[in-house]
Write a structure and sequence with these properties.
Oligomer: single chain
Radius of gyration: 24 Å
Number of helices: 8
Strand content: 35-45%
Distance between the termini: 13 Å
Helix content: 10-25%
Shape: globular
Length: 439
Amino acid sequence: MESSCLYTSSSNCDGIFCELHLTVEEAGRRVLGACSEVPEASPRLAPSSVSSWSRPWDCMGKCWLGAGPPQKRAEKSGQWEAWQVLGEAGRSLWMGGFIHPRQASSSSSLQTEVFQALQRLHMTIFSQSVSPCGKFLAAGNNYGQIAIFSLSAALSSEAKEESKKPVVTFQAHDGPVYSMVSTDRHLLSAGDGEVKAWLWAEMLKKGCKELWHRQPPYRTSLEVPEINALLLVPKENSLILAGGDCQLHTMDLETGTFTRVLRGHTDYIHCLALRERSPEVLSGGEDGAVRLWDLRTAKEVQTIEVYKHEECSRPHNGRWIGCLATDSDWMVCGGGPALTLWHLRSSTPTTVFPIRAPQKHVTFYQDLILSAGQGRCVNQWQLSGELKAQVPGSSPGLLSLSLNQQPAAPECKVLTAAGNSCRVDVFTNLGYRAFSLSF
């Protein structure tokens, strides 16, 4: 669902409202497609009148219909009730910023449809994880919901539109689902202050009861920082989590106890990566540093402050590190500073990739580096820095990429990309987007 702002205003609040207003209008237009004449925005409405509204949500469903008594204009086509509902939806959006699924009213099917349309319109998908069998994909959004999609059904030659909808959707967290990973049996999801475990077998039977939840030992009982990143360490059967409290926490998956805390970052941590050949973990955050940790000694062994290197620095974007990946002695990272390939042993940047937009996710794939961030495209880079391809998707910005490389399901070997929309783009090869899954 897309809409554009017809009016502008010198007031920031008014400008936000104008855009929000038309967004709600467009949501109603899509939901109420059966109505023959959905009224257009009144051409008589000027920015000055917007700024005079003391209760702008009243105008969401009523005044927007234009000059004259709006009820009489709309009652014959049955639109008046619809626009009243849109007005109430606008009130919730204006006052709360977004509508939580639990706020949807079950008393009116029309109202529920409008709320659901608005939720999809304002949805962000932060995280993805592939099932151990490789046939299912979990996606977590900003409303705390997790949706399970059947990749095998969506990729089938007999697939229909319904095959691209979730097999099951459930409320996992009260706030956004920032990160997810899968073990041999479990899906682990992280939100504000806690990590939860779900059995894949039970979820696929639509029995979505959490198996357990754990909260790291924070410095105060009032601290509830978001957990931005989860990382499995298979050799230790442990989980590393990091986020808003600027620390890395290690949890033993066998006992569920937290065994170590790694301190060194001075600001919010965004991302983690594992060096598989050695028990070492990389972390990157708002302080602009990538830190390398030895899990045997629980100590920091290397620090790379990316923004201090002139060829990588972009002061106008900030110093934050938003994504990183590692392959043996090589690391690629980006965010505020430019996306850059580093040789870890020498702490030397070897390739600076020529892309202006900050990148939010990066991964090594065969002899390529894949990245995504601000903008619709998944970028494919040669290690030398040459841009091999930019493949557009459906979301205006991308926050996560997931490569399904499970050997148990070679027919489901795909790349999926998600971000600032309710869609998960599926790439059956790296050359084009095949289709999209819809939350």
